[in-house]
Amino acid sequence: MNELRDRALKALRKPAKYGPDLNLDKFEVDKPVVGGELPREVASNVEKAFTRVGLSTTSPLGYLQVNEEAYYSAFQKVFSKYGVKVYPLKIALEKFSLARELAWSLIPPDTDKYTAKAFLEGGELGYFVYVPPGVNLPIPVYTCLVLTSEKKVQYTHNVVYVDRGSVAHVVTGCSVPHGLKGGLHIGISEFFVGENAKLTFSMLHAWSSGVHVRPRTAVKVKEGGEYLSYYVIYSPVASLQSYPIVYLNGRASTQMVSIVAGEGKGIYDVGGKAVLEGVESSAEIISRVMAKDNSIIYSRSEIEALEEDSRGHIECLGLLLNENANIKTIPVLSSKVPGAQLTHEAAIGMIADKQIEYLMSKGFSEEEARALILKGFISVEAPKIPRTVKREIDRLVKIIVEKAVG
Amino acid sequence: MEFLVVENLVAGINSTVVLKGVNLEINRGEIHVIVGPNAVGKSTLLAAIMGLSHVKILKGKIVFEGKDITNLKPFERARLGISLGYQIPPEFRGVKLRTLVEEVAGKYGCMKYMDTLIDFLDLRDLLDREAFRGFSGGERKRAELLLTFLQKPKLAMLDEPDSGVDIESIKLIGEAIKFAKNELNTSILLVTHTGEILREIGRIDSTHVLYDGRIVYSGSSEEIFEKIRKHGFKGVVEVERVKG
């Protein structure tokens, strides 16, 4: 641990590879607390934040973090019936050797200054989820991270382990109440998918024009495992930079879907990378990004093939909703093996007048025509996402379309 | 009440006058065909009746079921029961054909015909593809016909549904047109270059030759195609001019 600490200390000024560089000294940090009941004065803000990401307070919440305070007790019993452990990481690190073994094993603390700060200052709030072998967990584990104070930084460190042959769905809503003018969220997520296990991870995000967001995610998928991520962000943001990396062993597969609706003056630097480390591993990275106002979206995706008979496909489509917005797509394919099949397609366009007129001739008003095109564009099928979560995603799609048209 | 009346229609694209006084009457339930060489205004006439913005109406009027629709927007005309099957529909990047099909069927309460028409037109395998992207000629026409008929239109205007289409697709398109006429009581105004589709759809009520922006001759399709084969379009026009 001391060695990691030394490395983190050395990385405190190390900028991230992508995204605008932030001065971290201007953000304050609270003392991390694992609390019991949610105080009433916090509850109404939290409820508003929930609604923005399509969740409700009746969702089976496994973990809630408001700023630097963690609450978790409510649904412990529901999950423990299945042998599933859901704890704040801070507690899991005390209780379970597995948590200690896994934490910081996929994301080195000296990756950049954000990971270094999280390691040194974070207090290990965040969630720990362990699903034992052979369990098909029928209810999704909902987790929610809410930021309500403007000058502060929220750290969260999440570790999920889905053991051999198990199936689990994790949903994380990250949100702030409307109009928050500042704040920084740094999230470290390390996920492990065991042999022939399946994990779906849905991230529903709604930030605000002053908030900076720096998630750091890495996923390890063992032989025959499956990892599906579905990422939606639609709100303004000051800047967001995220580049999850998924490492795939033999026959393991991943599908990574990102839906990004940029607005205001936000800088959205989003994407993902899959490393095909095993024979017959496969990856599909799908992005649908749309930008309006003066927003800039960098849509990055990379698939790196290291083994024979691996397959990968990148599809990145961008839609500009006005002329001041900017979308940059950066698809990268990299292979060291002749037997790997890698493909990509990328395109950026605007809604064409002839498309609108075509739909108007089919009976749609101009507004309805725009909404139809946008809804079709951002609705990416992911059959493995559970129906309850799909309903929440659909609610967000509706909000995104209404905002874009109006 | 008269169903569709186009009266002395003069219309243009940019600064070019394309239609120079078109008169046309269609009764409910009829099938009419328009033929003519390239660039005489066949597609422009359909676009003008649909109200598409690239066609400017300079004179004359269009009356549908007794209502003057000359100044209505395309979606208002569509909601009165007029539909246009495009010759080349636009591609929709990222939007599945299924989305368009479900939205149109939902709008016009045609969910119950949806599956029948999808099977008629052999489109099931195309539903999850991006709408019109990379479709073959036949696929494009069949998908467009599906969207046109899902509007349950009183009048369907079909712009060259048989051009660039394989024989198999022509048969399917013919079946779908018959279905629309018989089951949905749809009147048809059809533009064709080759007349190939006509063999598949049975009785045609009237065929019109459009030449240089005017309808110069109307008659039965057999008679007109026979004359075109013998004398060419120009010949037909000159013979009629001498007679006239």
Distance between the termini of chain B: 30 Å
Q: If helices are DSSP runs of H or I spanning 4 or more residues, what is the number of helices of chain A?
A: 9
Helix/sheet category of chain B: alpha/beta
**How would you write the strand order of the largest sheet of chain B?**
6-7-8-3-9-10
Which regions of chain A are unreliable across 5 or more consecutive residues at pLDDT < 50?
none
Helix content of chain B: 25-40%
The portion of residues forming beta strands of chain B comes to 25-35%
| Extended strand count of chain B | 10
Quaternary state of the chains: heterodimer
Spatial separation of the terminal alpha carbons of chain A:
52 Å
Radius of gyration of chain A: 20 Å
What is the global morphology of chain B? Answer: globular
Largest β-sheet summary of chain B = 6 strands, mixed
Number of helices of chain B: 7
Average pLDDT confidence of chain B is 93
Give the overall average pLDDT of chain A: 92
Tell me the fraction of residues in β-strands of chain A, as a range.
Answer: 35-45%
Cα gyration radius of chain B (Å): 18 Å
Low-confidence stretches of chain B at least 5 residues in length (pLDDT < 50)?
A: none
Provide the fold topology.
The complex is a heterodimer of chains A (406) and B (244).
Chain A lengths: L1 H9 L22 E2 L5 H13 L8 E6 L2 E3 L4 H5 L4 E4 H7 L1 H6 L10 H9 L5 E5 L9 E6 L6 E10 L4 E9 L8 E10 L4 E9 L5 E10 L4 E8 L5 E3 L3 E4 L4 E10 L4 E10 L5 E10 L4 E10 L5 E10 L5 E10 L5 E10 L2 H9 L4 H13 L8 H19 L1
Parallel strand pairs in A: 1-3, 2-6, 5-7, 6-8, 7-9, 8-10, 9-11, 10-12, 11-13, 11-14, 12-15, 13-16, 14-16, 15-17, 16-18, 17-19, 18-20, 19-21
Antiparallel strand pairs in A: 2-3, 4-5
Helix pairs in contact in A: 1-6, 8-9
Chain B lengths: L3 E10 L2 E11 L4 E5 L6 H9 L5 E9 L2 E2 L5 H7 L1 E4 L11 H11 L3 H10 L16 H13 L5 E5 L7 H17 L3 E5 L14 E6 L2 E6 L1 H23 L1
Parallel strand pairs in B: 3-8, 3-9, 6-7, 7-8
Antiparallel strand pairs in B: 1-2, 1-4, 4-5, 9-10
Helix pairs in contact in B: 5-6
